[in-house]
Amino acid sequence: MKDEDVQEIENDDELFEHHRVVADPGQGLIRLDKFLVDRLEKTSRTRIQAACDSGFVRANGAPVKSSYKVKPKDVITIEMPYPVREIELIPENIPIEVLYEDEDLLVLNKAAGMVVHPGHGNYSGTLVNAVMFHLKQQPMKAAKEEARPGLVHRLDKLTTGVMVMAKNDHALAHLSKQFFDRTINRRYVALVWGDVEKDGTIIGNTGRSIQDRKVFTVYPDGSAGKHAVTHYKVLERLGYVSLVECKLETGRTHQIRVHMKYIGHTLFGDPEYGGDKVLKGTTFNKYKQFVENSFKILPRQALHARLLEFTHPTSGKWMTFEVPLPSDMEQVMDKWRRYAGNPEVHHDDDGGQ
User: Fold this and answer.
1) What is the enclosing helix (H) or strand (E) of 63?
2) Is residue 345 over pLDDT 80?
3) pLDDT of residue 268
4) Which of 43, 77, 176, 334 has the largest CB neighbor count within 10 A?
5) Which of 129, 107, 351, 336 lies closest to 243, judged by CA?
6) Domain 182-353 maps to which CATH number in 3.30.2350.10, 3.30.300.10, 3.40.50.720, 3.40.50.10490?
7) What is the mean pLDDT of residues 190-206?
8) Is the distance from CB of 307 to CB of 186 less than 8 angstroms?
């Protein structure tokens, strides 16, 4: 088999590894799982079988099981969650808030300031490091592979809220397919600058900015970036800011932050997209102080993953997890409610409480 016949392709959200394998013209009949395990480095037969069971493996465009017999010139495509990572995952004793756990999955309430997984300068202190430690404290059944959390989605470092991780290959493949097929339900709550006029839907490709590669932007003409859709509705109007709920149809990096900025409603406190400046309101010094006090309480974007719903990979039960706003967002919301109720009393005499 030629090297060019085995290709690895980067996925949209970097949580899948994509492969395309073309069988040689002289290939003899062989089980699909054995055929692939011999060709994909660091990929176990168990992972391949789980991917097949979840419909992630196709032969000539059609989903196939691991028992499928590969024939000459077959084109095999694979989408497997959990890309091969060169970074060694080291368990670290970092507190995490577990909302639910069983043999298949772990549901967490992620704290602000915690990177989800190692990489790009964050090689320790991440959520994955913490979960690795958590899993090692549990009695393991005769597992053939080392316990390591399987990522199926992510939250930005400064975003809080509910996340799910898989604890085995079966759950990882099953949950990943739900995210891939967009059958899960996830809703976020965001405090944004400005009075959002009405509910709506934002459709616009998002991709890295040409001017600044650290941030993303919207390419409305589709000339770059990847397809992204965000539905939003107003929960509360507070004068110069609004509380909105966002429902993701796609899961692009920084999607809510980029889309809301695009329609003129940058997330309150967002340090990367200019939301940490006074974008709406008066020029009075007392008002500016009021906003600065709010930034001190909430030194991050006001974004919280409130709700996550999905089908359990083993029981088939529809699972619902909802977490309230974190205290920093709740405190700032209370300040804005008081301000909106009586803007003449600027509430800046409380030291930011």
Assistant:
1) strand 62-63
2) no
3) 98
4) 176
5) 336
6) 3.30.2350.10
7) 96
8) yes
Residue 187's contacts (CB-CB under 8 Å, 6 or more residues apart) are 245, 246, 247, 305, 306, 307
Does domain 86-167 match CATH 3.40.640.10? no
Identity of residue 117? H
pLDDT at residue 10 in the model: 30
Q: How far is CA 176 from CA 6, 52, 54, 93, 286, in A?
A: 23, 13, 9, 27, 49
Question: How is residue 5 written in tokens?
Answer: 């016949």
Judged against a pLDDT cut of 70, whether residue 9 lies above it is answered with no
List the catalytic residues. 156
> In Å, how far from its chain's centre is CA 19?
22
CA dist 12 and 176 (Å) reads 13
CB 165 within 8 A of CB 149: yes
Note the pTM of the prediction, 2 decimals: 0.77
Strand pairing of 97-101 and 75-81? unpaired
Quote the DSSP letter at residue 309. Answer: E
